[in-house]
């Protein structure tokens, strides 16, 4: 191929390499060729790293479902994130905020001034506060827990997948070179191959040089993948910190929700005490209404 331009030579060489890989892969599948096996330590290391990657993906997906239960909204957020939309969007209302808004609106419009209307407004205002707390928790958990894990998946885990695929390519090249050396050695008699002794020696030297080169590249790739696996396994220490921040945010979230509900319950209790003998509005008549409802069948 000396007469070919350099660009065509490169294409021809790449095509030959790809063909050798395909042949090697096919022969391995058919059991006609041996393959280089990775040592047990490396296999175990790679398995642990891939388990961390797999479980991190599942944890991120589950956490996102907790923070945003609506799958359609999650898909929309995912597309916006991937498309890198910079336009500022109006923040969505949480479900509790929708509930609170509707309760307040209903209390103001449907039964203004009476017991049920006042109770709806007070309960709705609390739901709005709960929704705001939920929003703050979701933002904090996303920033301190989900986003760091996503960064890990986009960087270290993705690098592992890429280098693992390249390792398989290097292994195919190595085994193809081994097969070539074996084939040349099996026909090293000039009378058996209709080639001169010098031709056979030259082919064997070239095949062995190719074997040394592919072995060196394979060994280097194994070292690189080993480093990445160790880095991923060590990242568990940082993931514990992310998890701790998530738990702290969750504890704060539930405590704030409890405080708002306690305020609502205390407001109801104080109204009950202050208005036990009056017709004033609010939560004061909730207990009375419930009691009357339960006593109605007996009175009849």
Automatic annotation (TrEMBL):
UniProtKB keywords: Coiled coil
Cellular component aspect of the GO annotation: cytoplasm
UniProt feature coiled coil, ranges: 197-224
Entry-linked InterPro entries: AH/BAR_dom_sf (IPR027267), BAR_dom (IPR004148)
Cross-referenced SUPFAM superfamilies: BAR/IMD domain-like
Domain BAR: 27-277
Name of the protein in question: Endophilin-B1
Biological source species: Aceria tosichella
Upper lineage: Eukaryota, Metazoa, Ecdysozoa, Arthropoda, Chelicerata
């Amino acid at each position: 191929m000396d007469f070919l331009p350099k660009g065509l030579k490169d294409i021809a060489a790449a095509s030959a390499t790809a063909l050798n890989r395909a042949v090697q892969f096919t022969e391995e599948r058919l059991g006609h060729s041996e393959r280089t096996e990775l040592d047990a330590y490396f296999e175990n290391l790679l398995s642990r790293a891939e388990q961390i990657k797999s479980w991190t993906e599942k944890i991120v997906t589950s956490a996102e479902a907790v923070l945003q239960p609506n799958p359609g909204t999650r898909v929309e957020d995912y597309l916006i994130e991937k498309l890198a939309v910079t336009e500022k969007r109006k923040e969505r209302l949480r479900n509790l905020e929708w509930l609170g808004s509707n309760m307040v609106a209903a209390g103001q419009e449907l039964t203004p001034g009476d017991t049920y209307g006042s109770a709806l407004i007070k309960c709705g205002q609390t739901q709005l506060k709960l929704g705001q707390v939920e929003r703050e928790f979701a933002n904090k958990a996303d920033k301190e827990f989900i986003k760091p894990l996503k960064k890990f998946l986009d960087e270290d885990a993705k690098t592992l997948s890429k280098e693992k695929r390249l390792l398989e390519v290097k292994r195919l090249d190595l085994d193809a070179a081994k097969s070539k050396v074996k084939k040349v050695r099996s026909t090293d008699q000039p009378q058996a191959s209709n080639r001169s002794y010098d031709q056979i020696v030259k082919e064997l030297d070239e095949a062995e040089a190719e074997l040394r080169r592919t072995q060196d590249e394979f060994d280097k790739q194994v070292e690189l993948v080993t480093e990445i696996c160790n880095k991923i396994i060590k990242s568990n220490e940082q993931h514990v910190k992310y998890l701790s921040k998530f738990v702290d945010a969750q504890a704060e979230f539930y405590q704030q929700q409890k405080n708002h509900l306690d305020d609502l319950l205390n407001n109801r209790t104080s109204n009950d005490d202050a208005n036990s003998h009056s017709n004033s509005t609010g939560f004061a008549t909730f207990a009375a209404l419930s009691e009357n409802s339960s006593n109605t069948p007996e009175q009849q």
